[in-house]
Amino acid sequence: MTNVLYVKVNPQVDEASFSTRLAQAFLDEYQTVNPSDTVTTVDLYKEGVPLIDSDVLSAWGKAGANQELTEDETVKVERMGALLEQFLQADKVIFSAPMWNLSFPPLMKAYIDNILIAGKTFKYTESGPVGLATGKKVALLEARGGVYSEGPAAELEFTQKYFRTVMGFIGIQDVELVVAEGMAYAPAEADQILANAVEKAKSVAKTF
Q: What's the confidence (pLDDT) of residue 166?
């Protein structure tokens, strides 16, 4: 049985979120093809994800010195550990997120900070960092109001470049990217843009 983790990164209700609707179409198709797989959802805007703040930095320092943590420090590092372990246990990970202001929502970056942990998902060697999370498959279902895959705004496309780089850093090379873009740029065509992206998502899901 394959463990699939779905990381949802959007605070909007599902009906109002292009990225969530795109991801749901992907998941529906995937589960049709793989009915025995287990899918676990982590909704970052509902379940929360710790930031690397003063408590976390203090806790990391104390851990190295074998010092006792405060209650706040304990809660945050335990949550970080749980999110990391959940990611490590997954065979496949599906992310859904929008592009906001040329980047991902802040909780997407926070989640990535929770899973890029030295000694767990990568290690330092004499020849440079080496990824330890090999063997996983990852998909990103993304929605963008503008068009960044081509044309004059292509040089401002930082989301998928960043995502693929991060996954590669921790040893994941099998990365599928599906984007619906231009809905705000051409609102009259938004439904058709999403429909086209949904068809691509379903096609990718069949072999994911």
A: 98
**Is position 167 annotated in a ligand binding site?**
no
Q: Residue 112's domain is classified under what CATH number? A: 3.40.50.360
Kindly give the pairing relationship between strand 92-98 and strand 3-8: parallel
- Tell if the pTM clears 0.85, that is, is over it: yes
CA atoms 22, 28, 29, 31: torsion sign: positive
Residue numbers of the domain that contains 10: 3-207
pLDDT (tens digit per residue) in 174-185: 999 999 999 999
In the chain, the N- to C-terminal Cα span, in Å, equals 14
Q: Is 80 known to sit in a ligand binding site?
A: no
Domain count, the chain: 1
| Calpha distance 184→207 (Å, rounded) | 30
Distance CA 75, CA 70 (A): 9
Query: Is 90 exceeded by the pLDDT of residue 64?
Result: no
**Residue 18 marked in a binding site:** yes
17 is known to lie in a ligand binding site: yes
- For 142-151, the pLDDT digits (tens) are 999 999 999 9
Q: Is 87 labelled as part of a ligand binding site? A: no
Question: Are 138 and 173 a contacting pair, CB within 8 Å?
Answer: no
100 among the known binding-site residues? yes
